[in-house]
Design brief:
heterodimer; A: Alpha-Beta Plaits; 4-stranded antiparallel sheet; two-stranded antiparallel ribbon; 4 helices; 31% helix; flat; B: mainly alpha
Amino acid sequence: MQFALLIFESPEAFAARDADENDPYLGAWRAYYKALIEADVYVGGSPLQPPATGTTVRLKDGKRRVQDGPFADTKEQLGGFTILELPSLDSALEWAARCPAASVGAVEVRPVSPEYLRRVTG
Amino acid sequence: MSGSEQESTHRTIERVARESYGRLVAYLAAHTRDVGTAEDALSNALVAALETWPRDGVPQNPEAWLLTAARRSFIDLVRRRQVAEASEPTLALLREESKDLTLSPKFPDERLKLLFVCAHPAIDPAMHTPLMLQTVLGLDAVRIAHAFLISPTTMGQRLVRAKTKIRDGGIRFEIPEERELPQRLGAVLEAIYAAFGIGWDDMAGVDQRGRDLAEEAIWLARVLLQLMPAEAEVHGLLALMLHCEARRAARRGPDGRYVPLSEQDCQKWSLHLIEEAERHLAEASSHGRTGRFQLEAAIQSVHAERVRSGRIEWNAVMMFYEQLIGISPTLGTRTGYAAAVAEAKGAEAGLAALDGIGADEICAYQPYWAVRAHLLQRLEKTPEAADAFDRAIGLTEDPAVKQFLLQRRG
């Protein structure tokens, strides 16, 4: 079954993206992706631009409300997501613990919902 | 009662709870097979102790007091549920038992039976260790869940399910018969060792998967040893864990950096624990039956010898691993063997030993990649080494180990 790893990162972790090639956080991410692919569990996903680049849209009473910035105002922000094909939640949690963001932010593990997808796509 | 007296009463309750928890749960459960209710009854008794002891003083025999209170609560709990369950036999059993016990401050220690029940073949092996930690030591599901990387709700549910199976599945509270004993004891030892969760600190930069339960595991092994003092493998397991525990202070540098075993400052090792480990290993070998844990402890003992000799007898390590593969050819053992071969006969030979391990098994096994990276680097095969380092780093959980491997990778 497929699980989404939602990667929440601290401001420091977002800042590390601009660091040079030898930055340990970037090195850990490169290694993590390699391990995911070699273990043949990687389905897809992508990092996201920093939260400040987000724009949030709502319709209130039929009127558009557009807000600069991300949906939630929390210290750790969604920094990306990865979808993995794994046999169980237990193994998904294991891969989440190995994720570089786990020690500086948080990783939320969520099963994807193919049932709901089928209902809404017909 | 003054504040400090109250504090000391609380400490007494904590101490009694820690020391008696398993004995009381085991006793109540052995006669009813109902581990869950035994635990609930005991926690009610502990709450009652917290209420009454500070007021009336600590009773002369705190354990007997707790047992009486827990037994009363057990009967209450079962009565309240009686509509749904045919629990009269349980109640009768409990009442009968209590006749002989009200006067005697001593009650039989049933923890050994409880340990065998927790590691019963009918129970999911993944639940053996959590069950022991909860029923014998009284650890809560949240703490166990953290250590085993499972969500607290799921862990709670799995524990309840396992206890229901014990109650309704006809699992008997008994010491296995002679012919069954080695295998059944093996499961108990495995479960205790799983709580300890180390055993990999003899290789450069492998993920230690600290379970954060090392002390609890050693406590469990000591309980088991008290109950089975003549079993060589119990001594072996305790020796193994004490050897690893002896190095705790040396495993991290002052800045939190990971220090591999071969680079540890052995002045920081606890000689006291090493001596205790050696005593148990000697006791184990006097029984003339080798086993997995004795061999693993022997490997650690060779490493500990560095305190005296200043060097590691790699040929001895390799030999012990060879024997270990004969008994338990796990992925871990074979990786450890390859690392020892590399030290004894050179990196090429170590690499050849690694190549003998099947590709399917190793794809998500961190220690294999850590050792492989290390050996390739020694052979100056830089691109292959970097690749293996990446695999190891990507599979590592511990940030300090990650950092260490990143530095080695260069």
